[in-house]
Write a structure and sequence with these properties.
Strand order of the largest sheet: 1-2
Order of helices and strands: HEHHEHEHHE
Shape: elongated
Distance between the termini: 9 Å
Radius of gyration: 16 Å
Oligomer: single chain
């Protein structure tokens, strides 16, 4: 969903989708002005021992906007997108990114795993993807597909 969809995030889900009260409580505890950082949303998933997508459903149902994507892709003011293209990409990193592609895209989770494997910041991997013109898909929180 885009910025223009704000206030309508719940429409991504079938009518009747129920809000988990524990997730709602955790979101309400961490959200400020109906916004929550990607990192805080992932902290909730870890605290509740659930997958990030379940937190994402709760965020959508509460119409809570995700900010400060850890890959730098959205929610960064004033530019919206914080990630910039890398000037160069090591052959090893390029190979790992290309090996993780599905339909010419790489998932958010794959970027995280590559960052961990190479000892890089997550935004460094998304910057390499920008340089290679690889689109990131499948946000773990469901912000984009």
């Amino acid at each position: 969903m885009t910025h223009e969809d704000a206030g309508h995030y719940r429409l991504k889900h079938p009518s009747g989708t129920k809000l988990n009260p524990k997730i709602a409580e955790a979101i309400n505890r961490k959200a400020v002005n109906n916004r929550i950082s990607c990192a805080s949303a992932h902290e909730i998933a870890a605290e509740l021992d659930i997958i990030p997508a379940d937190v994402g459903v709760g965020l959508d149902l509460l119409e809570t906007r995700i900010i400060n994507c850890q890959l730098g892709l959205f929610g960064h003011s004033p530019e919206k997108k914080a990630v910039k293209s890398s000037e160069s990409v090591s052959p090893e990193l390029e190979k790992a990114i290309h090996k993780s592609l599905a339909d010419n895209r790489i998932s958010c989770l794959s970027c995280w795993k590559i960052a961990e494997r190479f000892g890089l910041a997550r935004m460094d991997v998304s910057a390499a993807c920008e340089a290679l013109r690889v689109k990131v898909s499948s946000c773990q929180l469901g912000a984009f597909r």
